[in-house]
Amino acid sequence: SGSDSLSYLSFSLGKLWLVLMILLRLAVVVLAGYPMYQDEQERFVCNTLQPGCSNVCYDLFSPVSHFRFWLIQTVSVLLPYAAFSIYVLHKVAVHIVRMHCLLHGCKSNKGLSSPKDVKQLYRSAVVNRADSGADNLSVLNFSGAYTVHLFVRTLLEVAFAAVQYFLFGFFVPDRFSCHHSPCTSTVDCYVSRPTEKSI
């Protein structure tokens, strides 16, 4: 029917969007972010010879590495999807076992000892679909769990965007002024490639 094809289309587009988001984000972080930030501390030049002052200023300027922060963000955004996938696999496996029990009856002394047993039950359920009739088939609905997982992912994205804003801002300055022990006076430090990093 039309609603089934529409839901299948939206599900397919959602999966495609997720894969592209993950691949594009990982590509940007690994291929562009890592080369740009691997020498960040070495190129953070301060106009002082005071021992330890440059390190303290860099720690104030960047309390967390941008690159590591983005990797943690990417992994954290993937966790709700992984939890949703595990939930779906579990529910589908239970549903297959129940279908098999309804069609053939279950023996109480026979358990599912391996994934092969679940595969065999799935195959037998698919083969016996035609015999059971369309009225006896039930379709699992994961829209509630999918909505919850989308909501959690959106919250994580917003939370990480807020944390990034409060830690770094959205623009990398070309100069950072620092006055903290062991610096004896206000020190100006210069950041490498600030425009490229802001972009």
Compact overview of the structure:
With 199 residues, the protein is mainly alpha-helical. The protein is built from 7 helices and 3 strands, in the order H-E-H-H-H-H-H-E-E-H.
Task: Name its key features.
3 strands; 199 residues; mainly alpha; 7 helices; 3-stranded antiparallel β-sheet; de novo design (two linked rop proteins); elongated
Summarize the helices and strands and which ones pair or pack.
Layout: H1 2-37, E1 45-46, H2 53-61, H3 66-104, H4 115-127, H5 129-132, H6 143-167, E2 175-178, E3 187-190, H7 194-198
Antiparallel strand pairs: 1-3, 2-3
Helix pairs in contact: 1-3, 3-4, 3-6
Subunit structure: A connexon is composed of a hexamer of connexins.
Membrane topology: Multi-pass membrane protein
Transmembrane segments: 16-37, 69-89, 150-172
Written account of the structure:
With 199 residues, the chain is mainly alpha-helical. It has a single domain (2-103, 141-198), classed as Up-down Bundle (de novo design (two linked rop proteins)). 66% of the residues lie in helices and 5% in strands. It has seven helices and three strands. It has helices spanning 2-37, 53-61, 66-104, 115-127, 129-132, 143-167, 194-198; strands at 45-46, 175-178, 187-190. It has a three-stranded antiparallel β-sheet, with helices on one face. β2 (175-178) and β3 (187-190) form a beta hairpin. The longest helix has 39 residues, at 66-104. It starts with a helix and ends with a helix. Mean pLDDT is 79; it is low at 129-137.
Structural class: mainly alpha
Count of DSSP E strands?
3
Instruction: Note the total helix count.
Output: 7
Order of strands in the sheet with the most strands? 1-3-2
CATH topology: de novo design (two linked rop proteins)
Number of domains: 1
CATH homology superfamily: Gap junction channel protein cysteine-rich domain
Return the string of H and E elements: HEHHHHHEEH
How far the N terminus sits from the C terminus, by CA atoms, comes to 46 Å
Tell me the quaternary state.
single chain
Overall pLDDT level: 79
Protein name: Gap junction protein
InterPro entries: Connexin, Connexin_CCC, Connexin_CS, Connexin_N, Connexin_N_sf
Keywords: Cell junction, Cell membrane, Gap junction, Membrane, Transmembrane, Transmembrane helix
Family: Belongs to the connexin family.
